[in-house]
Amino acid sequence: MEGIINTTGRRKSAIARLYLSEGEGNILINGEKMADFFRDDRYQYVVMQPLNLLEVADKYDIKINVKGGGITGQAEAIRLGIARALVEVDAENKSELRKAGFLTRDPRAKERKKPGQPSARKQFQFSKR
After folding, report:
1. How far, in Å, CA of 49 to CA of 55, rounded?
2. Sign of CA dihedral 78, 104, 53, 55
């Protein structure tokens, strides 16, 4: 691995820019440690999934800039970015990460509100007379 690897991850309206370099396992998100940015263990687990799967959590330093969306979308955008970076480090990782579903961008997003309706799918009460 030479230098810094730059990748992007997206989920809903969250976008994560990721810089992966060799190091001792430090993860900085928007200038904060991961434990300070994601206070809930669930989101820390989601971010660490690809690293734990390949057992390389303490081999790389990762600097992440994430914006947009909510906390779940941000965590899953970071997971996708980390998985893509690990494939760039070593192409042998691709099949394992693909099998676990970490390389697939989740296309689900909020459906838009339609005109003449109160929300995306809900409709005003129908009155026959």
Report:
1. 10
2. negative
> How many structural domains compose the chain?
1
- Give the pLDDT confidence of 37-77 residue by residue, as tens digits: 999 999 999 999 999 999 999 999 999 999 999 999 999 99
CA 9 to centroid of chain Cα atoms: 6
Q: Is the pLDDT of residue 3 over 90?
A: no
Question: Residue 94: which CATH number?
Answer: 3.30.230.10
CA dist., res. 121 & res. 117, Å (int): 8
> Residues of 86-110 as b/e, b for ≥16 C-beta within 10 angstroms?
bbebeeebeebbeeeebbeeeeeee
Q: Alpha-carbon dihedral of residues 46, 50, 51, 54, nearest 10 degrees?
A: 140
- In the numeric block, which tokens belong to residue 91? 């192409």
Task: Tell me the pTM.
Answer: 0.90
In one-letter notation, the amino acid at residue 102 is F
